[in-house]
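Duplicate of #3305? Posting structure anyway:
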């Protein structure tokens, strides 16, 4: 159930393309997701980076899922980042029944410490909603700060951001390719929030959810899944603990939920929140 992927593949299941290339990122299509600017000042939508000049227009739509159509999605190399360079149409998805909020009492925790993570799922509709926890995922994106000074805890190499930047290839006067690094990739993993309370720990670079079973700490799985029923206009508070294994790095956390629909799949996404582990 746990995966480790490059951030540019983050939430790949969010993508609903009308068409695309088989061996690399789609070059055009229609996609449904949320637009946001991450803590590293990178405009993001779905699995793509977005040209910064669209940030103001897309941010003005508010925190709602959008449908964006583009015929100009540029990827310099595979694997590597892809960027939406032109937008033909933007539409706001109709009313969605859920809203997810995250809260961390403190955004900086010393290495080996702990923090409480609160997840609140709010039912915005006039009918009760069933939330299947296997589809409730905590996305953890990590950014490498650079070389650690001698004596710091070992770096989590699985989570280190890739050295491959997003390149905007240009031609100089001699027609030689000149690479201008603009955006850098992050590493992202997800863990299903099957039940609560639980401890989210890092095991060999990937997050896992552990719960108490008869006084023993064991990994949670489908057999521990809780189906949460939320009454109309009510919220369900879920509580977790940031546990062991988090190394010194910059993190960004989001929770997504797969909202089943007869015709398509829409993911509800929380706003990202920062979280640092320091010396």
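Output from current build:
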């Amino acid at each position: 159930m746990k995966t480790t992927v490059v951030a540019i593949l983050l939430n790949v299941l969010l993508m609903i393309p009308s068409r695309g290339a088989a061996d690399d990122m789609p070059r055009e299509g229609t996609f449904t997701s949320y637009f946001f600017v991450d803590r590293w000042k990178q405009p993001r939508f779905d699995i793509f980076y977005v040209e910064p000049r669209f940030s103001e227009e897309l941010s003005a739509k508010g925190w709602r899922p959008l449908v964006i159509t583009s015929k100009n999605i540029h990827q310099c190399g595979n694997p590597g980042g892809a960027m939406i360079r032109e937008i033909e149409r933007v539409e706001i998805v109709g009313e969605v029944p859920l809203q997810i909020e995250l809260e961390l009492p403190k955004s900086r925790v010393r290495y080996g410490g702990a923090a409480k993570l609160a997840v609140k799922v709010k039912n915005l509709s006039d009918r009760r909603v069933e939330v299947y926890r296997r589809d409730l995922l905590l996305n953890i994106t990590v950014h490498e700060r650079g070389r650690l000074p001698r004596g710091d805890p070992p770096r989590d190499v699985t989570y280190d951001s890739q050295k491959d930047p997003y390149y905007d290839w240009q031609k100089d006067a001699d027609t030689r390719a000149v690479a201008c690094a603009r955006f850098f990739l992050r590493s992202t993993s997800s863990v299903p929030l099957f039940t609560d309370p639980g401890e989210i720990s890092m095991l060999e670079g990937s997050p896992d959810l552990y719960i108490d079973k008869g006084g023993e700490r064991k990994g949670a799985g489908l057999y521990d899944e809780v189906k949460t029923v939320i009454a109309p206009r009510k919220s369900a508070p879920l509580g977790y603990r940031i546990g062991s294994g988090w190394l010194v790095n910059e993190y960004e956390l989001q929770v997504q939920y797969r909202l089943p629909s007869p015709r398509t799949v829409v993911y509800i996404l929380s706003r990202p929140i920062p979280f640092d582990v320091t010396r």
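Confirmed duplicate; merging threads. The chain has one domain: 3-278. Residues 10 and 47 are 6 Å apart (CA to CA).
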